[in-house]
């Protein structure tokens, strides 16, 4: 019975995908990729009262990537967040963040557009670009890792994945001085886990 279970797992699409994943960026087909929102996470964390990091996410993300694994400088991306999709542990806080802090009625979308890519290792690089948030545009650099690529077992197209991190300053984006502002830190760490699927 144990051997039957092992054989069933080994034959599953998941196991096949694990075996076929390539961590060589050059193995990924060049071209345009669409962000897979079901396998993408944009998380933010901010220090709370100097005691811990309070984290949340944006649940609605879209974007496109023009990828060239052999000439990284020719790669570019554009990612958009629906700011009203902010999601923390508190629904009450979510509503306050939408209305009082991000003012989503006036600024519904945050957008990151790449300007350059600099390789730092076999699978790592610095992606520089412009972050548009609350009507303010600032230069931001993401430390990015290419996690791998493979033929997606269900989408019938090539898929690639990345992890990225950056830190932004609240004062750079003219956030309002809400009553609870003194109780949180001045910087926010952004973490991205993103998958893209090649357009057919």
Order of helices and strands: HHEEEEEEHEEEEE
| Average residue-wise pLDDT | 91
Q: Roughly how many Å is the radius of gyration?
A: 19 Å
Query: Tally the helices: what do you get?
Result: 3
Helical percent range?
10-25%
Distance separating the two termini: 42 Å
**Which spans of ≥5 residues are poorly predicted at pLDDT below 50?**
2-11
Q: Work out the number of β strands.
A: 11
* Beta-strand percentage range: over 45%
Main-sheet strand order equals 1-4-5-7-8-9-10-11
Largest sheet geometry: 8 strands, antiparallel, barrel
Structural class: mainly beta
List keywords for this structure.
single chain; disordered N terminus; 200 residues; mainly beta; eight-stranded antiparallel barrel
Structure description:
Helix content is 14%, strand content 50%. It has 200 residues and is mainly beta. Strands 1-4-5-7-8-9-10-11 form an 8-stranded antiparallel β-barrel. A hairpin with a 3-residue loop joins strand 2 and strand 3. The chain is elongated and about 50 Å long. The N terminus is likely disordered.
Show the helix and strand layout.
Layout: H1 2-10, H2 13-20, E1 31-35, E2 41-48, E3 52-58, E4 61-67, E5 76-82, E6 86-87, H3 91-101, E7 109-119, E8 124-133, E9 136-151, E10 158-169, E11 184-198
Antiparallel strand pairs: 1-4, 1-11, 2-3, 2-11, 3-6, 4-5, 5-7, 7-8, 8-9, 9-10, 10-11
Brief sketch in words of this structure:
This protein is mostly beta strands and 200 residues long. It has 3 helices and 11 strands; from the N terminus they run ααββββββαβββββ.
């Amino acid at each position: 019975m144990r051997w039957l279970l092992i054989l069933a797992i080994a034959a599953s699409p998941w196991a096949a995908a694990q075996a076929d994943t390539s961590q060589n960026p050059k193995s990924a087909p060049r071209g345009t990729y669409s962000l897979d929102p079901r396998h993408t996470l944009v998380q933010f964390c901010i220090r709370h009262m100097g005691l811990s990091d309070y984290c949340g996410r944006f649940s609605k993300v879209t974007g496109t990537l023009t990828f060239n694994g052999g000439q990284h400088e020719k790669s570019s991306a554009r990612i958009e967040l629906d700011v009203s999709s902010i999601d923390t542990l508190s629904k009450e806080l979510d509503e306050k963040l939408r209305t009082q802090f991000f003012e989503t009625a006036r600024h519904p979308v945050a957008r990151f557009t790449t300007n350059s890519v600099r390789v730092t290792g076999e699978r790592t690089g610095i992606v520089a670009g412009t972050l548009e948030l609350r009507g303010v545009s600032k230069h931001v650099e993401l430390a990015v890792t290419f996690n791998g690529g493979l033929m997606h077992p269900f989408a019938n197209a090539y898929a690639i994945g990345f992890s990225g991190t950056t830190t932004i300053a609240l004062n750079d984006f003219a956030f309002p001085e809400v009553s609870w502002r003194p109780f949180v830190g001045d910087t926010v760490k952004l973490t991205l886990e993103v998958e893209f699927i090649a357009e057919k």
